[in-house]
Each structure stands twice: as structure tokens, then as C-alpha cells.
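Team,

Forwarding the record for the chain on the shared tracking sheet. I've put the sequence and predicted structure together so nobody has to dig through attachments.
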Amino acid sequence: MGRFGSVSPSEVIDKVAADDPSLTVVDLANNPSFQNNPKEYTKKLCEALSGNTLVTEVNLGHCEIADESVPDIAAMLNKNTSVVTLNLEGNKLKSEGAGELARGLAHNKSLTALSLLNQTTIKAFGDGCLQEFMDAFDTNITLLKITWRLDSRKSFALNKLITRNNEILRRVNSGRSYDELLPSALKGSTIEPSATTPEEAPRDSLDEESTKEKPEAAAEDPGTPVSGTQPPNSSGRSRTSSIGEALSNVGRRLSKMFTGPPTDVESSSDSPPGDDKETQDDADSHATGDQAPAQAPAPEVKRRRSSFAGQVVSGVGAVVAAPVKTVGKLTSRFSGGAENKRTLSVSVKDSVALLTNNDPNTTTLDLSNSAVFQMKSQEFCDQIGEALATNTTITDLNLSKNEISDMGVSSIVKGLTVNKSLITLNLEGNRIRSEGAEEISKGLAQNTTLRSISLFNQTNTKAFGDATLQAFIDMFETNVTLLKITWRLDSRKSFALNKLITRNNEIDRRLKAGRDYLDILPEKLKENPPTLTPSS
């Protein structure tokens, strides 16, 4: 026993060095003996862990560990293949030490959760430290959670990488291919024989189809390849990459560790990602004069309490990336009736394929907040633009929060210009600037079916200005079907735009009532009035 009846660090280290099968959790948090000599004990423990294959949890919280001991921890992480959670809360680490830790994680294939919260020598880690961790994610695809206090406007970029890792693990656990998500440094990974099979997904991940809890999935068939892409070899075993093997091991360890009931927790951060909402004020412009639609609540994330002494991992100031929905929600007609509808969940790739193939049953497609879409935003925008040009069945398309830029908008507009079926288009929470919005107005000038478009809460512009307003006013010289625009507009001339949208709504009302509307058509259309249909 150590001082005051505490566990002796030396005894624990000896057991770790001997790979004692009875020891899987090392908990030396707040240990007085360790605090008296943190450098020596950290070095010895890390040397022991470097060759250990059984310890899965290490808790060194509040042990007076400083930057000088981080190289030992980083070297251990570079070699160890069993530790899944590492708690370094309440120590004396600075940004330099955390950066060194990130370099050790670059080639680690087992750690899934790291806590660096409440260091006594620093209030928050900054941009330099953040960049080191982002560099580590060029080769690390197994770290799923970081709990710390981060002071950086770029935290959203790290959250995207953590989201990517969570999505890779979900695909491994469900036997689906994850090759498209791998970072470029790992694209050429050698395929090696392995009998590893996918395990149950960790229960703190977000379900792909909904945020509601579902019964635990049954174990996969042992013959199913992890990557979902390699056939069985001649010996009957599945072939998969060493990356897949590492990810499967992560899934297996996590499924053993997280066994209690789920706890609902809100993730929060000192430095929110770029897609956070701003407070709505009187400057908001809503084309019909209605109030702006209430912002949809963020998906409820089911999380577990950390094994770190019951600490809720997403406490105030912690940056914990919530996995992002990566499947498309499409509404499909069947049995011939519009009143008979069903909602299906499919991958982004398959969703776009249905759009491209003009699937007669697909009417509503929701690809909002998709991790897969966000990582290949321009590519998917190109494909959707081409598909819209020929599609005749889609009526509602939701592409919100997908990192769509002005270039992506240009691709979508090419299809929107000639599309004859789309009624509502949601582009909220993307990265569209004034130039992109003006490009949309040019496409809408020739469109005759779109009734509603949302450009609210773009992450890189607070409000659209006079130039964008004028572009939309010009658009209404030929467009008499658009009934609603939801956006934030900073212009004293917004009343002029509202009058034009009021005109379009009046035309629609007269169409529904069977009354003549020619007298309120814009001058350019009076000589050759278009054939119009009322909105549904």
C-alpha cells in the first residue's frame, strides 16, 4: 500500500509490466505517492504499458504530470495496442505538451477517448495545439472523443475529423465499406488476411437512421468482411485491411466497456463550430411577411458517462464531437397513391443515384447535416446539379448544413434553371456568400416550379446585402412562382422585394380561385403569358 492507505504505484507498475491478466484498469488518480514523484512514476508506467496487451483504461487524473513527462506518454501511445481510454485531467499540461501527445497519437490504433480537461497551468488550449491534433488525424482513424477546453475559432474542423472517425467505426461494425472516408495518407493501405469480424457498435454513437435508442444489433456473421469490399480468400477466412482489424478491435473493446444505461447529455464548447445559429432580430427578411420558421432542434445524442470517475464527458467547456447523420431520408410513393408514403434511409451515394435515375417513387430527399456529404461537398453538388436537370419527380430537397460553397451552388443552379418538379429547396447553414446567392437568383429567373427557398444562417456571412437584393428583384421580372424566401437580409430596400413576393402570392391565389391574373404579371411576361399551375 502507498501513503495514507492509497494504492502503491510501484505495485501497479509491476503488474502492468508482467501483463497480469487480472489488471485491465489502472487507476492512479489523485494518488499521493504518484503526485510526489510524477516524472519517475510516469516514465516507469509508460515503459510498462508499452509492452502490455491487457490494460484498457488508464486514469492519471490530478497526478501533477507536466509537459516534461509527455514524451514518455507519447512514446507509449505510439507502441501500445490495448489502451482504449486515457484520463489526464487536472494535471499541469500546457499547449506544447498536448501537441507532443498528439504526435504520439498519430500512429496509435487503439485509443478512442482522451480527456485533457481542467489543466491547472492553462485555461484553454489554442490554435497551435489544435493544429497538432488535426495533423494527427491524417493517420489516426480510431480516436472518437476528446474532452478538453479549447479556445479556437477552428474547432469545427477538428469536430469534422472526429465525426469522420465515428462514421468509419459505424461502417466497420455494420460490415459496410469505409474506403471513401479514409484520409489520403491511408488510402493505399495493404490488404492482409484477417479473421476479425465486426462487433457491436459502441452505444455512445449516434444511430444512422434516427436518434432514438434501438435494440442492440445481433453479432455479425463471422464470415462477413469488415470493409465490405473483399471476398473470402481460399482458406475461407475474410480478407480485410489492418486498418479494419484495428477498428474492429476498438468496437469490441468499447462494447465491453460501455454497459450501463445511456445518459442524455448536451455537447457544449467554449468555441462553437461555425454552423451555430445567431439570434434572430428585426433585420430578418421573410418573403411572405411570416415569421421565420423555428430552427429545428439539434438531434438528440445518446451518450454514456465516461468511466473517468463518473465525469460527464461533454461537460461545460469540453469539445466533444457528436457523430453526424450520414444517411439520406427519402420519401417514396408506393401503391400508386400520393397519400401512401414511406420514409426510407439510404446512403448519400445511393440517394444521389435515385435522383440521377429519376426514380419515379422518390419525391422528398433529405441529405441535411451529412458527414459524408460534407467531406465531398463539391462532388455531390456537381452530381445533384446534373441530376436536377433531368429529374421530373423530386419535389422537396434538403441540403442544409453540408458545407456547400458558392462553387457548389453554381453546380446546383445549373440543374435548378431547367428543373420542372422541385418545389422546396433548403440550403440553410451552408457557406454561401452574396455571390452564391446572386447565382441562385439567375437560375430562378428561368425556373417556373420552385415555391420556397431557404438561405438562412450561412456560416460565413451574417446577412445578404443590397447587391443580392437587387439580383433577386431582377429575377422577379420573369419569375412569378416563387412564394417564399427565408434568409437574413441587411438592406433598407427589402420592402421592394416583399412587394414582388406579395405579387407572386396574389397570382397563386387567383390561380386557385380560377380568377384572371394577367393584369398583375410583370411587363416582360404580359405579351406572352406563361402557363401557370397553382401551388399545392
